[in-house]
Structure formats: C-alpha cells, structure tokens
Design a protein that fits this description.
This protein is mostly helical. Helix content is 91%, strand content 0%.
Amino acid sequence: MEWLMWLKGLFRSFRYAFAGIAWALSSQRNLRIHAVATLVAVGLGFVQGIAAWEWCAVLFCVALVWGAELLNSALEVLCDRVTTQEDPHIRRAKDAAAGAVLVCAIISVVVAAIVFL
C-alpha cells in the first residue's frame, strides 16, 4: 500500500511539472520560439540522418535551453510577485537569468552549426 501512495505522489509531481510547461508555453513568447527551434532541429536531424552522438548533442542542447528558459520564467514570476516597482536587485537577478538563457541559446546554435552544416 505504501508503494501505491508513492506512485500517486510521483504522478502528481509529473502533473505539476507538465502544468508548468503548459503555462510557460502559453504565456512565454521566448519559450514558444525555443519550441519552434526544437521542431526545426529535430526535423533537420531526421532529414539529415544524424548520428547517435549528434542526437545526444542536439537533445542535450534542447534540454539545456528549455530548462534555462523555464527557470528564467519561474524567477521572473517570483520577482514580479515580490514587487512590480523598479528594484535594482530584482533587475540584476532577472538580467542574470536572461543572460543564462542567452548563453545556453548561443552555445546551442554553435552546436547546431557543427552538427548540421
């Protein structure tokens, strides 16, 4: 019976995670841009018949960018909950999180160029 409760908790965790992704896709323009880039990268992978190691690199980059963007979105929501007034500390936190996404995206473009060109 204990394992059943554990399994129920696990499914609940997945439901919350998917709800977070759905919210971000519906409300965050940049995540929708990353979704289109993901579809393009996966499509190119199939068309070009890339090797297994190349799939690993592409999918790692996809996960890296999506993860960074989701964390950035979460941080922005929390910061906006604290205050909507201009605050230099919150601005720096938001800028740093956005910078992290940018670094991940740039590296992903470099990896894509290596794999697909």
